[in-house]
Amino acid sequence: MSKRFVGWCIYLAVLCGMFALPLLKLARFAAHSDVHSYVLLIPFVTAYLIYIRWNQLSDELSTAWGPAALLISMGAGAFFAGQHFAELNVNDHMTLIALSFLCFAIAGAFLFLGTKWARSAMFPLFFLVFFIPLPEIVVDTLEEASKQASAEVANWLFLITGTPFLRSETMFQLPGITITVAKECSGIRSSLVLIITSLLAANMFLRTTWRRAALVAAVIPLGLLRNGLRILVISLLCVHIGPHMINSVIHRRGGPFFFALSLLPLFAMLWWFRRQEIKQQLRRGDYGRTAH
């Protein structure tokens, strides 16, 4: 391990000490958040990605003053805004704190390791963007869009299953009960975790750009289908068993189960793409041996 990398590690340790109180507040916020609980895992995943790709990272180390100065300026600006804009809510304050810390951390990579190393570690460094909690306006917009789209998917599922219903926007009147698709039904946290999972899987196991893009793009319809299916299942339970099922475990605590269901087609798609890539690699190898 080079002295420059050790220097960056010491720099990060000092930075964590300087940000100790804000980072503690961020950890408490994320731990109790309905959306951003995944934030706490991101630095550890990034560290693991750097560890497993250590031999692939550039050993041409230098100091890149330009990118470092730009990131330090951005980090200082975000920290200043987070401390002096009193009207900020807790969510947006944590967004600025995390952005500031991240800018200073990556600035250290450019100061101690340089542009070539940073380019070779592009994905692990990019992955740190998920350490930043989404601003509240973005969360609200995504939740509203997901709620409306999930209601539309549920509408089609009711039609396919022959369930009698009347719809008014996001409200469904069913035999014996009326179901309203609320923001809590948007599944925004599960969708974000699904996006993160697909990005990791695509980068680690796939090589072709279009397959990586297709895997990540599949997350959106899978997330909406998961939400629509959950609405359908809860509705049918209420219709066929009783309205009390609206307070059942499958409604209150069924999120992880439906999230796991959405992982199955995603991993099946990943497996099929990976298999196709291996076949292509084998064919190229056969062609190479034949030509030789």
Q: Which secondary structure elements does this structure contain, and how are they paired or packed?
A:
Layout: H1 3-18, H2 20-31, H3 42-52, H4 65-84, H5 90-112, H6 114-120, H7 122-127, H8 136-161, E1 166-168, E2 171-174, E3 177-180, H9 188-205, H10 209-217, H11 219-240, H12 249-252, H13 255-291
Antiparallel strand pairs: 1-2, 2-3
Helix pairs in contact: 1-5, 2-5, 4-5, 5-6, 8-11, 9-10, 9-13, 11-13
Question: What would your notes on this structure say?
Answer:
This protein is mostly helical and about 290 residues long. About 70% of the residues lie in helices and about 5% in strands. It has 13 helices and 3 strands; from the N terminus they run ααααααααβββααααα. It has helices at about 5-20, 20-30, 40-50, 65-85, 90-110, 115-120, 120-125, 135-160, 190-205, 210-215, 220-240, 250, 255-290, and strands at about 165-170, 170-175, 175-180. Strands 1-2-3 form a 3-stranded antiparallel β-sheet, covered by helices on one side. A hairpin with a 2-residue loop joins strand 2 (about 170-175) and strand 3 (about 175-180). The radius of gyration is 23 Å and the shape is flat. The model is unreliable at about 285-290 (pLDDT under 50).
